[in-house]
Amino acid sequence: MLIEIWERLRGYNKWIQTEAKIESSNLEKVKTYDINGNQAGVTSESDDVLVWTDKMGQRQRAKFCVPEDSPLYQFIGGETVTIRYNPAKPEEFYYRDLLRTKVHTAFKLTLFFALSIGIALLRFARVILRITESHHR
After folding, report:
1. Is residue 22 within 8 Å of residue 48, measured between CB atoms?
2. Interacting residues of 1 by C-beta distance below 8 A, sequence separation 6+
3. SS3 letters across 65-77
4. Cα gap 5→106, rounded to integer Å
5. Across the 137 residues of the chain, what is the mean pLDDT of every consecutive 10-residue run?
6. Which pTM does this prediction carry?
7. Residue 17 neighbours by CB under 8 Å, 6+ apart
8. pLDDT tens digit string along 4-23?
9. β-strands 39-53, 93-94: how paired?
């Protein structure tokens, strides 16, 4: 329901719907880092190329990248998906599942940073409490 409202607000519902093909999909290993800048591990991403033909018969291409926890990560190339493209700028496209992946990733990052800030504030509060207690003795 919310996604349909978002699509209407952004005007995507007025864009031209068409079939696009995943032209290629390249898996790539990416280093991850913790809040202190230390390498925390390695994850995978998929760099994909999407192609479609606009109403003028011009072939359009767009690249997008998804993390390994995205359902789009499973694409290997050759799959067909339904997208919408901007009739005024045919190189601009909207793909609902890609938006879902971006929202999911943004939510995870926000949650991670909120928890990190919360932990840092608790540690800071402990230090202040200890300093205050030592001054009252």
Report:
1. yes
2. none
3. EEECCCHHHHCCC
4. 19
5. 87 96 73 72 74 96 82 77 96 89 78 85 87 76
6. 0.64
7. 82, 83, 84
8. 898 999 999 999 999 999 88
9. unpaired
